[in-house]
Specification:
Layout: H1 2-30, E1 34-41, E2 48-53, E3 57-63, E4 67-74, E5 77-83, E6 86-92, E7 109-115, E8 121-126, E9 130-134, E10 142-151, E11 155-170, E12 174-189, E13 193-207, E14 211-218, E15 223-227, E16 231-235, E17 242-248, E18 252-255, E19 260-264, E20 268-273, E21 278-284, E22 288-291
Parallel strand pairs: 2-6, 2-8, 3-7, 3-9, 8-10, 9-11, 10-11, 11-12, 12-13, 13-14, 13-15, 14-16, 15-21, 16-22, 17-21, 18-22
Antiparallel strand pairs: 1-4, 4-7, 5-6, 17-20, 19-20
């Protein structure tokens, strides 16, 4: 009899917890969407715009203005604030959820309007969802001192950017970039995909098991890549002047360019094309790199 009482009490506790949890999820998923705005002044003392988005659809729009304005429609919590020399824009879940069901069906929309003459630093952290950021045109790009991109499992589209320092850290998400000029480009890919078209600048890339494709309009600086088990495509202009030095463990490096002073074996590939002005240093464990 005592054992039966214990079982009954346990069932009542489990039922009560289920009701509380179910009502919490119901409130977060089915609550009405609301419109929210946020503003922050972009004074001369602001050197960084930090954007941290958990999910949903986000668009960053440069336009003629002096402040940053964020317009949001959705269920999450939007925060726009100044923190020292940084303006922070964050979009996160409200309160505590045992399981955030809303992230699977998040149709929220966030538009972030920034001054088009803002030319300092920006950091973008995207969990899931989609984000778009582009300059007016290839000849009228967004100009920044530094752009750092961190993506989890979402999708990001960047276009028409001129950045002194570009950094990319990717998990399992997908990033497409069209027209990017950078003095230094640092790329880290775990298992995601990064496609870059019309790139100009130096490249330093670490690829684990993801995929990286880069098409260069001009080769004006060195390229260094370490590839574990990922795949890399390096599309160079026909008149590129480079010296290739590639080391291979169990992977593969192929080069469609005719090379002079060529040294090719199962473990390495070396040679020059044109004047050999710029160095291309490649290290492959079990991945693949194709130069074409």
């Amino acid at each position: 009899m005592e054992k039966l009482k214990r079982i009954l009490i346990l069932l009542l506790v489990i039922t009560g917890l289920y009701i509380v949890f179910n009502q919490s999820v119901h409130f977060n998923v089915f609550s009405d969407n609301s419109n929210k705005n946020g503003h922050a002044a972009i004074s001369n003392g602001i050197s960084m715009i930090n954007i941290d988005i958990s999910s949903g659809s986000t668009t960053i729009i440069p336009e003629d203005r002096k402040d940053l304005k964020a317009v949001y429609t959705g269920k999450r919590k939007l925060t726009v604030k100044e923190n020292g020399d940084t303006v922070e824009v964050t979009l996160k879940s409200k309160g505590f959820n045992w399981f955030d069901w809303g992230s699977f069906s998040d149709k929220s929309k966030l538009k972030i309007y920034i001054p088009k003459n803002y030319d300092r630093s920006m950091s973008i952290d995207l969990g899931s969802g989609n984000l778009d950021f582009s300059g007016e045109s290839k000849n009228k790009p967004v100009n920044l001192d530094e752009l750092t991109v961190n993506i989890g499992s979402g999708n990001m589209n960047l276009k028409n950017l001129n950045v002194k320092q570009f950094g990319h850290d990717g998990g399992s998400g997908n990033v497409e970039i069209d027209s990017l000029k950078s003095k230094t480009g640092s790329i880290n890919i775990a298992s995601g995909n990064l496609d870059i078209k019309h790139y100009i600048g130096a490249i330093r890339a670490d690829v684990s098991s993801g995929r990286l494709n880069i098409q260069l309009d001009k080769l004006i600086d060195s390229i260094q890549m370490d590839v574990s088990s990922g795949n890399v495509g390096l599309d160079l202009p026909n008149n590129a002047d480079f010296t290739l030095n590639g080391d291979v463990s169990s992977g593969n490096i192929s080069c469609d360019f005719p090379l002079t002073t060529k040294d090719l074996n199962k473990k390495s590939i070396k040679g020059t094309h044109g004047s050999g002005k710029y160095k291309i240093e490649l290290d492959v464990s079990s991945g693949n790199i194709r130069i074409y």
